[in-house]
């Protein structure tokens, strides 16, 4: 039976290779981050051994621990078009994983929008959503802009981008990612590609592409041919930071010095592992990054939607909650579809514990008892 997942991986790999060969990526050789045809981090990435990679692949395919997915769909608050039309500026709705819907200067912005059922090149296999989006893709209000951090499948969803291609007015991307969008049908004039520390003004809102420590690629032959980035968003007195995917590095301090303090930081807290600290942060590092950035409220993202690691699905929330309390950091954990006011952030009910309570109750039922 183990031949079936192996065959699935082979077929998915074939799809990856096909898509890679048919998406032209510009060289962007003038970028200081581009070395020998590939984008690089400020610090060299440790080399990975073949044995370590194969062991990790085996764990993901055949030896996953229990609890990496919730026992039932997490609670989702449905968001209506009518509610969004009446929402004031600086409203934020968490839609899942790293997808945020934010209202700025009367226009709606999406970060790393993923609405597909799976974060995968194919929709018949790969990490499946724990929950439906709080609002359907076709029910979204007019989108002023899309902000993308990098090209991995859980952040850059081809089906979602193709739907938004002529519906969203502006697409802000790191270098190279915009080339993918153009190849998928996004009008070239709507795409703006930025290097680290470059900025653009849209409707009086300033967007700055800032460094991150990660990697890129969607196939076998395009490793690090597109750049990854975090983002600073400045709207009058509001300052927010969106991390995208990143390991912990000294860049957070530089960003904090140049653009902080931040009212709210949206920082990845999930899909981590001790085996890959260079590209994903442990919760302790998330909290430290928030402090480096001189942030006030912390909103942890990159969690609660996809099974992308080997930790318990709710572990990121519990660990970051404990750490934030120990360091007196205000923590915002809106449930999927809950509105947050960025001008007056607030704490939220720990919604993931309602799912955990149900899970624990099921564990306590004696064998043979009716559920």
Can you give a write-up of this model?
With 371 residues, this protein is of the alpha/beta class. Helices cover 26% and strands 20% of the residues. The chain is built from nine helices and 15 strands. It has helices spanning 3-21, 50-62, 81-86, 158-164, 177-183, 251-259, 283-292, 315-326, 352-364; strands at 34-35, 38-39, 91-96, 99-104, 107-111, 143-147, 168-174, 191-194, 199-202, 205-210, 230-235, 238-242, 262-268, 295-301, 339-341. Strands 8-7-6-5-4-3-15 form a seven-stranded mixed beta sheet, covered by helices on one side. The chain has a six-stranded mixed beta sheet with strand order 9-10-11-12-13-14. Strands 1-2 form a two-stranded antiparallel sheet. β11 (230-235) and β12 form a beta hairpin. α7 (283-292) packs across α8 (315-326). The longest helix is centred in the first third of the chain and has 19 residues, at 3-21. It is globular. Residues 1-21 and 361-371 have low confidence and may be disordered.
